[in-house]
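Quick one: sequence plus S-adenosylmethionine SMILES, need structure tokens.
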Amino acid sequence: MSWWKTHVVPRIVDVACGQRQTAELRQRVCAGLTGRVVEIGFGSGHNVAHYPATVTRVDAVEPADLGWRLAGRRLALATVPVARSGLDGQRLPFADEEFDSALSTWTLCTIPDPVAALREVRRVLKPGASLHLVEHGLAPTVAVQRWQHRLEPVQKRVAGGCHLARPIRQLLDEAGFQVTAWDEFYEQGAPKPLGALSLGTARRP
Ligand SMILES: C[S@@+](CC[C@H](N)C(=O)[O-])C[C@H]1O[C@@H](n2cnc3c(N)ncnc32)[C@H](O)[C@@H]1O
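Reply:
Sure thing.
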């Protein structure tokens, strides 16, 4: 891993993902999480304050050591046990059907093979259990999509492999999830190429 990716990107992610306007979205996406939860791309723990009381334990999957260290303050205030249990969403170190819920927030943009990661999440979820997600991805409007394709090479270099134009719903279909709730909108205050969000839940059949 490059010096930039190891020492700088987790700090950029900590600030960029910690904007005040994301708190309401985190609250929405975490609502309904239950039991043992696997969270892929845990980052610096911005979701910790939003886990509902129905969650009993969170298994965090995060490759960046610095991201995990930056989560320290938030983890100290956590009301449920959170353990860093894995490093790569594409290869989860869990048995089949171990989890009651899964969580992914602004992560499918960065994982090199997001369909592989989603297949892994599906594998470790119990049948009928749900993945809760909020992700930025391919915009619904063509003019914004053009900007996404123009900016994506720079974004990938600066932001640790973050893609701007991934078709999130299509990725869920490819991984065998059934979408059960879905909302697409532009995030308030964010530039549209970065702020084309999908927020919803997808069920393991
Ligand atoms: C834009 S950040 C989002 C962080 C966090 N989910 C949040 O909402 O604040 C993307 C995260 O995905 C992580 N990531 C990158 N590759 C990954 C992989 N293969 N498996 C799991 N997480 C990965 C990054 O280290 C980073 O923490």
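The first strand starts at residue 35 and ends at 40. Helices lie at 3-16, 21-30, 65-70, 72-76, 114-124, 142-158, 168-174.
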